[in-house]
Give the backbone structure.
Amino acid sequence: MRAVVQRVKRARVTVEGQEVGAIGPGLLVFLGVGQGDDGDDVAYLADKVANLRIFADNEGKMNLSVRDVGGEVLAVSQFTLYGDCRKGRRPSFTAAAPPELARELYRQFVAALAAYGIRVATGQFQADMLVALENDGPVTMLLDSERLF
């Protein structure tokens, strides 16, 4: 399971002109589910996102988590995080999980974050989404449950 985590002032997702999810200050998380991912991957990434210390404390050091600052999370499913561009010019997505598994693990990820007491908004699974964000910093982190990054 992979995630691109961006610290944001605000973020929102629209589908066909309708807003489906929006947050104020917090984290925008693009989540990709890979072949073989399971509940352990969900638990690892949810814990990492909930407790990642990338918000500034009173001394300006990245020392606080989204939980510490009372921030929100916008979780957006993004299978293209498993795009393999090493050969040719067209990405291969064979490492991405099939939609049924990806949908279930995405739902589990959202529920796991909510269990930490975080307000979580979502995109719409398998939809053509427009994501607007105001990146704060900018701060962008890459996470992988296989600890590849």
